[in-house]
Amino acid sequence: MQESIEQYMQTVGQQARQASRVLARASTQTKNDALSAIYTALKNSEAAILAANQIDMAKAHSNNLDSALLDRLELTPARFKGMLQGLNDVISLVDPIGEITDMAYRPSGIQLGKMRVPLGVVGMIYESRPNVTLEAASLALKSGNAIILRGGSEALESNQAIAKAIQHGLQVSGLPEAAVQVINTTDRAAVGQLITMSEYVDVIVPRGGKGLIERITNDARVPVIKHLDGNCHVYVEAQADLLKALPIALNAKTHRYGVCNAMETLLVDEKVAEEFLPRIAELYEEKQVELRGCPATRRILENAVPASEEDWYTEYLGPILAVKVVSGVEEAIEHINKYGSHHTDSIITENYSIAREFLAGVDSSSVMINVSTRFADGFEYGLGAEIGISTDKIHARGPVGLEGLTSQKWIVFGDGQIRQ
User: Fold this and answer.
1) If we measure between CA atoms, which residue out of 249, 236, 396, 188 comes closest to residue 332?
2) Within 97-155, where are the H helices?
């Protein structure tokens, strides 16, 4: 069986590499036509895709998957509509491929610049969320990349149904069907093959739990764009407008629990803690959010559970929130940089100077002022969708859209020059 998986993955890799050569030369119109054909195929397949998702949901319930995974797995009509809107947004985005920048003449008479080009073949490994299948495929196609998708076993029916529509769209448009391949086996050996096929795959993007991403990062022989977890913070500073802070802190935590841009730790300046904490705690109580607080928090909120050192590091992905009272912006920045995951952190303040200090000091891929962390998302950032969020500092950082799936190569124009 191991040999057959290896052979299967080799074939998938070879087909993806061949398809990537075609896509690299495809015009913007050709790529947009393919995406439009995929849109039509998906719309016509909505009932079948939602029915397939219900099969996955039933299996997930019977396997006692936790609430965060169930939330990520479910495809509602509203979420399906959002998927289609994201696809439309990708179609309308400017195609980065072929863009030439930094043109300059050298003393030799040559003219050189940089041209934006696809990475080639993207390998995507993800859990639960079937919408990722479409997001990743659409971004890869628009940026001229072939993509190999390996979803989690819990979303197998949903992913296969979405993949069928994508394949139909590619076939109608005349692009190679191998431009988007969804691995048809749940055997984990397929993942081991995918992350080591450096001759066929140019970058790996894992999306899922910390365990999955750690495994991929440790074992991959292909470059990885990743974030391990989303331990996000909101800091309510001493000069915050509390009428802004209350809905922001509520939304950042309770809008959706099982997402990487949900707030997991609330930091409150000691100067406003007595006023702010009882008011926000009342809102959290209505949502049945458990609060785990530092000693200063517990002196104000008697019902808060004592927070442990581990709580400051934890991505709960559920209705639990760590709360800490801090002495000022310096302590808030220090806490975030020590315990956070470099994902997304927000300050609520009316003081411009302190806001600037927070922006400069917090070492995260997205740093925000007076807004919920839930906006750290490719769709909300105008990227159409995202292939993932990167907390790395090299190549791509934050939500990874079209440009994150490209590179640049030097181009040189001459007129017969030779080097002296």
Assistant:
1) 236
2) 131-142
* 176-216 residue pLDDT tens: 999 999 999 989 999 999 999 999 999 999 988 788 889 99
Residue 255 token pair: 């809008």
Which residues are bridge partners to 267 per DSSP?
235, 324
Q: How far is C-alpha 414 from the chain's CA centre?
A: 42
Radius of gyration of the chain (CA): 23
pLDDT digit string, tens, across residues 7-60: 999 999 999 999 999 999 999 999 999 999 999 999 999 999 999 999 999 999
Two tokens, residue 73: 């797995």
- Give the lowest-confidence range in 128-132, 240-244, 259-263, 271-275: 128-132
Look at residue 127 in the predicted model and tell me its pLDDT. Answer: 85
Q: Mention every residue, 6+ apart, whose C-beta is less than 8 A from residue 237.
A: 269, 329, 332, 347, 348, 349, 351, 354, 358
Q: Say which residue the tokens 């909300």 belong to.
A: 380
Inter-residue contact 189 to 2 (CB < 8 Å): yes
Which ranges in 63-196 belong to alpha helices (H)? 67-73, 77-92, 131-142, 156-173, 189-194
**Whole-number Å distance between alpha carbons of 200 and 198:** 5
* pTM of the complete model: 0.87
Edge-to-edge strand list for the sheet holding 146-150: 180-182, 146-150, 121-126, 203-207
CA distance 420 to 229: 54
**Alpha carbon distance 136, 379 (integer Å):** 12
